[in-house]
Automatic annotation (TrEMBL):
Protein's recorded name: Acyl-coenzyme A oxidase
Domain Acyl-CoA oxidase C-terminal: 474-651
This protein's UniProt keywords: ATP-binding, FAD, Fatty acid metabolism, Flavoprotein, Lipid metabolism, Nucleotide-binding, Oxidoreductase, Peroxisome
Domain Acyl-coenzyme A oxidase N-terminal: 18-137
Classification via PANTHER family: ELECTRON TRANSPORT OXIDOREDUCTASE, PEROXISOMAL ACYL-COENZYME A OXIDASE 1
Active site: E425
Cellular component GO terms, alphabetical: peroxisome
Required co-factors: FAD
Recorded GO MF terms: acyl-CoA oxidase activity; ATP binding; FAD binding
Annotated pathway: Lipid metabolism; peroxisomal fatty acid beta-oxidation
Amino acid sequence: MSENPDLTNERASGTFETNAMAAVIYGSEKFAQRRREITEAISKIPEFQDSHPLVFMSREEKISEACRKLAVLSNYWNSLIDTSDEEEALHLYREVLGLEGHPLALHETMFIPSLIAQASDEQQEKWLGRAQRREIIGCYAQTEMGHGTNLRALETTATFDISTREFILNSPTITSLKWWPGALGKSANWSIVIANLIIKEHNYGPHPFMVQLRDEKSHEPLPGITVGDIGPKMAFNGADNGFLGFKNYRIPRENMLMRHSKVTSDGSYIKPPHAKIGYSSMVKVRSRMAMDQGLFLASALVIAVRYSAVRRQGYLEDKSREVKVLDYQTQQHRLFPSIARAYAFIFCGFETIRLYDQLLIDVQNGNTSGMADLHALTSGLKSVVTYQTGEGIEQARMACGGHGYSMASYISEIYGVAIGGCTYEGENMVMLLQLARYLVKSIEMIQNGKSRELGPMVAYLAENESEIDLNLGPNEYLKVFEYAARNQTWRATEKFQKLRNSGMSNEEAWNQASVELTRASRLHTRLYIMSTFINHVGSIVDQKVKGVLIDLLNVHVTYEVMDIGIYVQGLLSSNQMDLIRNQLYVSLETIRPNAVSLVDSFQISDMQLRSVLGRRDGNVYENLFKWAKSSPLNKTDVLPSVTQYLKPMMEKSKL
Ligand SMILES: CCCCCCCC(=O)SCCNC(=O)CCNC(=O)[C@H](O)C(C)(C)COP(=O)(O)OP(=O)(O)OC[C@H]1O[C@@H](n2cnc3c(N)ncnc32)[C@H](O)[C@@H]1OP(=O)(O)O
Ligand SMILES: Cc1cc2nc3c(=O)[nH]c(=O)nc-3n(C[C@H](O)[C@H](O)[C@H](O)COP(=O)(O)OP(=O)(O)OC[C@H]3O[C@@H](n4cnc5c(N)ncnc54)[C@H](O)[C@@H]3O)c2cc1C
């Protein structure tokens, strides 16, 4: 069937090449091209198609479908991608497996990265190749039923038995059961387990251990291990998140991951070069989250923007034909700032992935000085990005009206998966407070006359306000954000210090200032996102692409400043606020002809989107009807439940 002419016209009005934009989004022409090649190759392999729509499947069917595809994938893996390229592998997974989770998700995102960052060379020799060849399936078991955030209160123990040179793993209470790890429930046969290291009754705190959970032949749990699935979740139901308990389960000394901390055979403990080095797997995932979430938001926007260009409802001036809902200013205000955010998040994502890769090299060379900075940055970024992604996806759903609420849109699934990110890898408030520690320390450095020692990301905290001339463009908006973040960070810090100086304990003063502190962290992070966006656009060579991204940046800066209006009241007059508001409305109009091309440029295939509303060809209505007819409820005209309950009830009522 040919493309819906409404979408053809939208595409014709675009002022740039979507392939050129994709090269900017995905960091290089080479990778953008590889993505397209991989997508094309996959589309020719029928076994990769869903056997029927995922939304009609039970959890068991979803997991089985994911396993079927993984088995097929193993036949094609080497021919489809460069297996040493993480981005290519993740693109392949997204295309084939989608976003509802699968048994290898944690294997790739945490198990292998933990082995790379935490295992010694000999341990990597033993396990890394096996993991990379997928001879074993691993997961990352840290969170317990009773504690996820407060890692120092984990209860699982790994006690060193000097006589046998083994660790004995135990889960002493119900609350110490590992709870939540993805792929643990039914799929993984190995796990990195985080347990308290105990030597001669001294607790050295949480450390990573390589633990075999299931027999490699029978897949049965090994004696001393209790393991299973934790049940259905809000989303991610293609994943078997699990529980895990240990009863006097022994592993060799060599199974503690010993790149950094070590236990020798006589039970001596060797400290790591940085106390939090064992947390690096979390930093790794957090450093990827701006990119992953940017793509979740992008997926919802591809659906909502394409659908809004084919959905006609109501009239503007021309009463002869209903208008595309995308022409309403309210619809544009609902969607376009989110398009800008999705671009900004992806740009930030590439930056933090690069920073993590650099940090990994530095740490391997014994230099841990960058850890605190990246921890602070990624803590704030994961929190702001996941929250705003959730907001943006929900707006995208509402922008699709009634059909947005149908699973045919697939937006609710994207939403459920994306907002999981507000919780996993550190609950958002907790992570904002981690960043706040860093900001408060920065203010204390300024107070102590050490402004010169501040890193580049916090140097603005020591500066004074300057006059703002909004006509000068995005950099002036950046100054507005700096003002807001600086003011709020000083205010929150001073509140904390005042409470502490009044005699309150450090912890209680922190708690009583914590809402203000999280606000400072959000503003600081939003400033970082804006400045990354501005820098990125500044570096673009293709003039047509750059022109459109400058328009999108204008949407971003004006929307973001309006959104934080309350924090800039002391800086901007009401006339200036009016000016910004008007600039935002002008920017929405300017971006309108490029809206469909901007979302097309994410190059997310129909196979990955799984959305009837977001189809590239825009043929929504006929496919919506086809989709509804494929509902299992429509297999028969009269359901057994009608025959069994409703009919007798109606018959009885007749008497
Ligand atoms: C496909 C789908 C994928 C889904 C994957 C999901 C996988 C998971 O969810 S795995 C589980 C993730 N779990 C978490 O993220 C738990 C969150 N909790 C934490 O990270 C910690 O407990 C945390 C950071 C809150 C507190 O740790 P704690 O050891 O008590 O440290 P705390 O006393 O608060 O801070 C001590 C110092 O360490 C620093 N620090 C903490 N973490 C780090 C780090 N990673 N790097 C560097 N420094 C760090 C702090 O900044 C602080 O510095 P300072 O004293 O100078 O201010
Ligand atoms: C989809 C999904 C996948 C997951 N996958 C894994 C996995 O593979 N492996 C794994 O080990 N874990 C996994 N987890 C667990 C996840 O990492 C934890 O749930 C998460 O870290 C939050 O911890 P918690 O559940 O203890 O929340 P809690 O800490 O109990 O949070 C409850 C509330 O308390 C607040 N709170 C807690 N502490 C503080 C504080 N100090 N200051 C202020 N407020 C506070 C929080 O902000 C929150 O509002 C997964 C979770 C989900 C949802």
